[in-house]
Every structure is written in C-alpha cells, then in structure tokens.
Amino acid sequence: MLAHPLHAKLLSNDCNVTVLHDFKYRSVDGDLVGVVGDSWVLQTDPIPVTWHSNKGINKESFGEIVSALNKDVKELNSSAISTQSSYFYGKLVGRAARLALIAEEVSYPKVIPKITKFLKETIEPWLDGTFKGNAFLYERKWRGLVTKQGSTDSAADFGFGVYNDHHFHLGYFIYGIAVLAKIDPSWGKKYKPQAYSLVTDFMNLGQRYNSDYPRLRCFDLFKLHSWASGLTEFEDGRNQESTSEAVNAYYAAALMGLAYGDSRLVATGSTLLALEIRATQTWWHVKAEDNLYAEEFAKDNRIVGILWAIKRDSKLWWATAECRECRLSIQVLPLLPVTETLFSDAVYAKELVEWTLPSLKNKTNVEGWKGFTYALQGIYDKSTALKKIRMLTGFDDGNSFSNLLWWIHSR
After folding, report:
1. Annotated domain spans of the chain
2. pLDDT per residue as tens digits for the range 335-369
3. What is the reported pTM?
4. Which of 113, 171, 371, 388 has the fewest C-beta atoms under 10 angstroms from its C-beta?
5. What is the set of active-site residues?
6. Nearest-angstrom CA–CA distance, 182 and 101
7. 127: buried, middle or exposed (CB in 10 Å: 19+, 13-18, 0-12)?
8. Backbone angles phi, psi at 33, to 5 degrees
9. Cβ(366)–Cβ(360) under 8 Å?
C-alpha cells in the first residue's frame, strides 16, 4: 500500500549516544569511540565533515575556477532535464550543489542565487510529490520509500522499488537538500519533515527508533559497511559496488545535520561515514603490499568491482573487468571534500591510477571517466593532472569542470 506525498517522521534527537546493535558509539573530539560494557573500545581516525576543501584554495587559483563556474552555472536549466530516473536526477542535484559550495569557497557569491533557484526547482517537486513521471512514495509492507516507477517495475530506477541502492540515490538528494538548507534556512525549515524522511529511510537509528522505517536499512553492523542490494536474493548473498556513493550518503547526512543544527544527526552520519571509509579501504582498495587477497588477484587488480557476501568480482554490473577506468570511477564519484579522506593514501592512489591509465589509451568516449582518473592523479602529481583536466571535452553527469578544477587547486 502506497501513501503520497512523503510519509514524514523526524528522527529523535534526545540522545547523545548513538546505539548500534549492542555497541554504543560516541563521538569524542572527532574520534569514534565504541564501548561494550567497560572493556572494549573502537576508535577510527578523525573524519572531517566540512562543506569545503580541507586545506583551502590559493587565491591565485580563484580566477580559473570562477571562469569555469560562470560557464557551468549559465548552463543550469531545470526545464531541460530529460531524465526521470531517481539516480541520474539525483546526480544532477548533487552536481549543482557542488557548484554552490565551490562558489562560496572562492568568494564568488554572484552565481549562488541562480544555483539556488535551480536546486529548488529540481528538489521541490520530488519532496512535494509534483514531479511528473516519478515520485518518492512510502511503501508499508517493507516500511520504506520507493519510487513511483519502481513500485510497478522492479527494474526501474536500478531496482529502487525493491530496495536496491537506496543510500546511493537518496544520498544525492540529501546532499542538495543540505546545501539548500545551509543557504536558505527558511526553505530548510519548510521541507525539514520530507528531508528527514529521506535520511531516515536508510539511516534510522536511536533508542526510541522510528517504527515507520527499519533500523539502518543498508548498513551491516557486523561487517561495518553497507550493502546496496535490496529484497532480491542472490546466490552469492548481498553485494555493493559503489563504495564512494555509500560514503556520499553518510557524508551528506552529516552535512544535513550541520545545516539543521542537529548534533545527533551529525554524530550518526559521521560515525557511519568513518566505518564505511575504513571498510572501503580494507575490502575494495587492493594495495600491492597487502596480503588480504590472493597474490594472483592482487597482481591483476587494484580495486574491487563488486564485493559480495562470499566473493569479490573484478567486473561491474554494467562494465567488464577490462574497463579499468569504469572500475576506478565508480569507486570515486561523486568528487567531494571527503574524497580526500577516502583516498588519503597517496601511494595507493598512484598504484590505482597507473593501473588504470593504459585502459584510457585510444579511447575517445570516456571523457567523464578520465576526469576521475586525473582527479586521483592530482593527489600525487598536481601539475600533470591539471594539464590533462584542462584538455577534457566532457564530464560525468554528476561532475563538472568547475568541480575538477576545485579539486586540483585544493590539493
């Protein structure tokens, strides 16, 4: 049974401790501390949850970024969007939100009103239930959000209607909502119930947890990372492909907490973010010196395509193992301030890029994937990466020239 518009419930905000199964996690000076009884403690490295780059941008680089911003913002046109897919539409929302934060960071507020207008025009119809062709609906059997298209077609929206990829799709919308609520608090207040419904769908947590949604739909409290698969049963169990989009979901939730002044949401989002990043670096990032995987696999792979409950795949759902630029990109996008933490190991970044670069040779239709490869190259070779990025003729639909320049100039 479907209810429309969004079934909205607020997360409870009356508890300073985030309870995960039998573990209790508390953020202490940016570290995640977990306690079972009085004898066990888990800590992660501090995860910066910031709107802008961690190290900032030299003013000498502002001019090039501003020039790209003017062009990218000029091309924003909500009426020209042809997709009705919750995933691809969400990526466009996230892309525009990045432009607003980049404009803030380079002190160029002139373009922010147009970006704000675009974000409102693209986000509001999904929250109001007025978007033609698709919508978010509340489904009572499994207690969660589905899309209108997904409610009648299990293959639509990459299986969102059967609970695939919820944190991926919703993460992009939440990122856009967080940025809008930061820029326009009155708008944020108006849409707060719907905003919290989106985040509660996959991040429901608390001592008096919300019975309208299951607890932590995607996050595995035993494995300490997320799964993207929903109700479909697979021979090899649950699976997840894009770790960076999982990271985006919890990062966006933490930013939404900042925008709403909700310290509990910030703590919960940053907690899950820290664990997701650590698991990604452990299971998906294949380093030459590690002994986690067999020597033969580690020799031929620098990143896992899909991690399953009982196996790991080199291929992706949508690309072969030979498409190395695809495998790299799906574990990098979207490019964000938190990407610096996700790929904090410059030695590994170089291994991954050098493993990928041969796959880009003599290919003319992979400009979007090249952008993510060059972005990682910028971690250890800024000047070469910048030259390559300036020569790109196209970008991933969730990325932009402005965002790539921001990334390189903030190294």
Report:
1. 2-409
2. 999 999 999 999 999 999 999 999 999 887 899 99
3. 0.90
4. 113
5. 165, 241, 245
6. 10
7. buried
8. -120, 125
9. yes
